[in-house]
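Section 5.1 Outputs to date
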Amino acid sequence: MTIKKPQDIPASEITDPRVYRTRRQIIRAGVLAGSVAATGGLYRLLNPRPGSGRLPPKVAGIGATDPSLATALPDDEKPTAFEDITHYNNYYEFSTDKSEVAELAQNFVSRPWTIKVNGLCAKPTTFDIDDLLKIAPPEERIYRMRCVEAWSMVIPWLGFSLSKLLDRVEPTSAAKYVMFRTLLDPDRMPNQQRRVLPWPYVEGLRMDEAMHPLTILASGLYGRQLPPQDGAPLRLVVPWKYGFKGIKSIVNIALVDSPPMTTWNIVAPNEYGFYANVNPDVDHPRWSQKTENRIGDSWRRRRPTLMFNGYSEQVGHLYAGMDLRANF
């Protein structure tokens, strides 16, 4: 084998540094364009984890989950790895690229923080986040989460039932829906400077959905405070609905008398209905809902999507008599 000295190599044979530095992006773009199923092992291969950096602080004094709310998961449904949960994120306020959010959000500061609860209630209140967590200490909840684009996770959340917060403000009989609004701050959330979506992000639930004990406000995961890329300091988790019913960095919760216009209903009403229940029999216009890929699994291993994400026994009665194809 002949080893050339640097001075013996013609300039024409030296790879342009710009080409070298972008080779991974070129490979990644080509693979992703060829397959929506490029998650799990392939995703990890093309998106090596950055240094672990600062971990969120651990949460002390976590309450135990109410046994009546426990949902047994099959043996093959283990919690998704912390690294995957915190490095594969839908969070358009920072980026539309799921693999970029963690890096772009790493310096997002979520203290101090307040959540205003108002609208059709007897006791409208603005809560400091840390005072709220003393009033409603987080519990451990392991939920199966199926998200858009047919990928899913099993996440050990820390949170409390949204009903505990709503009970404190005493909704009036006129309150039929709950509207949620995220922080609007383009300096701290740089992608809000672009017209990706109409900002601020808005979400909504029917009152009985909001009051269901499985619906939680999550403040952490894996025993730690919620990382910025996962919606710190407080996000909505509705385990039988798609990922976009998981509004993050909430600053306002309003009780209203009619269905609120939510962000995805405004942007793509033909693709996203108000309810967003997981239903394998109703395909998204651009992909099938019948199967899903668990982040962390091989991309070849797909599993059947379960009705209401496997929570039919707990929530199916909320939709009795409804046409779930029309009300998607």
